[in-house]
Specification:
Layout (H helix, E strand, L loop, with lengths): L2 H23 L2 H18 L6 H14 L2 H18 L18 H23 L5 H8 L3 H29 L1 H21 L3 H29 L2 H16 L1 H16 L2 H21 L5 H16 L14 H18 L1 H31 L4 H5 L2 H29 L13 H20 L4 H29 L4 H46 L2 H16 L5
Helix pairs in contact: 1-17, 3-4, 5-9, 5-10, 5-11, 5-12, 6-7, 7-8, 7-9, 7-14, 7-20, 8-9, 8-12, 9-10, 9-20, 10-17, 10-19, 11-17, 14-15, 14-20, 15-19, 15-20, 15-21, 17-19, 18-19, 18-20, 19-20
Subcellular location: Membrane
Membrane topology: Multi-pass membrane protein
Main location: membrane
Length: about 550
């Protein structure tokens, strides 16, 4: 059976049956749409800004009645009319300067550039795994300290986006991406020259801060440049590329370390990312709508002397106030938005489990199957296969599902339309954890273990993509801040889970060790998509307004 037949079969099974069953019985998004329609009716009943002819009639009526109250109303109406005249927006729905109207070539060029930057940064975290013994020997450090070279880089991904992602909502996506990429290139290169554990850990932390912005900017850029009905495929492919990093990194790391030494791990990545950074000056134009319209308003002010403005006030505020609000926003969202809290917990456990599994993956082949280090690295290809299948199926199904649910709702949309694809991933992850742990424990044939780990990565990709797209749809005006808030716990768990993996396996073994993770996921992961589908709109409504 070829790939096309496999995709068609799964599409028939999942899309036509499971998704139709969900949309037939879980009605929360339809309730959301009903509320939206009521709000639209209320808005139509509310007074709107009158056209010029109505204003003139109002002025005549005021002059005839000579009422002070009506004179005040006239002044207020005229003031509102003047303000609307000075409101800056795109020049129609087909304005070529609107990033949503860019050519598909430009959209894909920007998406691939930012996703390749994310690939480099995530490879930096995993690429060191085969070289840890060599680094420990050259720097004369303990195994625990050397493992911190891996963990501290991931830890930077928790705190970096909380500050750097909101900066893109002030200074723009392009400027922050280029500056942080340059920062990463410099400090990652320093790691290759390190001769002490202090310099290595410091440089890794600083490199991780720059890398975190490269990874964090990808989602906001996709939200800026792709419309909801076409975003699923672009999102699946563009976010799939960075997630190959943890799988490809150890393979390339082993080859480079054995060929030219561990220091070239850092230099090769810095060279590649430097090429991407230079290319960004030509390939990556600014795409943040608020900033682009602000620049347009400033240009009109300069040309006419009139107070042109956008519907957002943040760019007219003092820089210090903008910085305070933007930096505080991800923390505020994590503390006050129930949706962000639920998604954060799910993503955190997803990625914590992923890094937990990656920590033990190579050792299973060495200790259980007595393979060499280089041979054990080849099994990471199974992770790549699982990621590829998950991304491609997600790309094929998510836009079709969005269009189907939109048509069924009479043209209305809701963020919950991204949720159903969480279900396959949420089911596959615990099953594959049981499968992987016990087949490795009982030393089944290597292909059985590799199929299990491929299934696990398939589930992680499917569920993660669905969650991230849901956050993007729910917080369109603050995608960067919402993404940073939802990914904070994810990076904390990815940092912490590998630290207790060796002790857990030493006490319980691979079978029960992975079973513990699977049982926890059964209680956390399985209910999550149904909670979001049924109560997502209510949870979003309970969140406090953005600062």
């Amino acid at each position: 059976m070829n790939a096309a037949n496999v995709a068609a079969f799964i599409n028939q099974m999942i899309y036509d049956k499971l998704f139709r069953l969900l949309t037939a019985h879980l009605t929360s998004p339809n309730q959301v749409l009903s509320k939206k329609k009521k709000l639209k009716k209320l808005k139509k009943m509310a007074p709107s800004n009158p056209p010029k002819g109505d204003v003139e009639k109002s002025v005549t009526a005021v002059q005839e009645s000579r009422s002070e109250d009506k004179e005040a109303e006239e002044n207020q109406t005229n003031s509102q009319w003047d303000q609307d005249e000075l409101l800056v927006d795109w020049d129609g729905p087909d304005d070529p300067k609107n990033p949503l109207n860019w050519s598909r070539f430009r959209k894909w060029a920007v998406a691939l550039l930012t996703s390749l930057g994310g690939l480099v940064t995530l490879m930096s975290g995993a690429m060191l795994a085969p070289a840890l013994d060599a680094i420990a020997k050259d720097l004369n450090t303990s195994p625990g300290t050397t493992n911190m070279c891996l963990s501290i880089f991931v830890l930077a991904f928790a705190f970096g986006p909380m500050v750097l992602a909101p900066m893109t909502e002030i200074f723009g996506r392009r400027k922050v991406w280029i500056l942080c990429s340059t920062w990463y290139v410099l400090w990652n290169g320093v790691c290759g020259f390190a001769n002490s554990q202090g310099l290595m850990l410091s440089a890794r932390l600083l490199a991780g801060l720059g890398a975190s912005a490269e990874f964090a900017v990808t989602n906001p850029v996709l939200g800026d440049t792709w419309r909801p009905e076409e975003r699923g495929r672009s999102f699946a492919i563009a976010t799939f590329i960075p997630l190959l990093g943890p799988a490809i990194g150890p393979i390339l790391g082993g080859v480079i370390t054995n060929s030219v030494g561990w220091r070239w791990l850092f230099w090769v990545l810095s060279i590649f990312d430097a090429i991407l950074t230079v290319a960004a000056f030509w390939i990556f134009p600014e795409c943040y709508e608020q900033l682009l319209l602000h620049r347009k308003a400033m240009k009109l002010r300069k040309e006419t002397g009139r107070e042109y403005h956008t519907r957002w006030d943040i760019h007219n505020q003092p820089l210090t106030q903008k910085l305070k609000r933007s930096v505080a926003r991800p923390v505020w969202m994590l503390a006050t938005q129930p949706i962000i809290q639920l998604v954060s917990l799910f993503l955190a456990y997803n990625f914590g489990t992923l890094y937990f599994v990656l920590t033990s993956f190579a050792s299973i082949w060495i200790t259980q199957y007595h393979q060499s280090v280089s041979a054990s690295g080849l099994h990471y290809i199974a992770l790549v296969i699982g990621s590829t299948i998950g991304a491609q199926l997600g790309a094929a199904l998510t836009d079709r599902l969005w269009a189907y649910l939109k048509k069924r709702a009479g043209g209305e949309t809701a963020p919950e339309y991204r949720i159903p694809l969480m279900i396959p991933g949420s089911i596959v992850i615990p099953i594959s954890l049981f499968w992987y742990g016990w087949t490795a424990e009982t030393k089944q044939k290597w292909i059985v273990v590799d199929v299990a780990i491929a299934m696990f990565n398939f589930g992680v990709i499917m569920s993660t993509h669905s969650q991230q797209q849901y956050v993007m749809e729910a917080y369109r005006g603050y995608v960067a801040s919402a993404s940073a808030a939802s990914q904070f716990l994810r990076s904390i768990f990815a940092f912490a889970f590998p630290l207790f993996a060796p002790a857990l396996f030493a006490r319980l073994g691979y079978g029960w060790g992975h079973s513990v993770l699977a049982f926890i996921f059964l209680g956390l992961g399985i209910p999550s998509p149904f909670i979001l589908w049924k109560f997502g709109a209510k949870l979003r409504a309970k969140g406090k307004p953005m600062p």
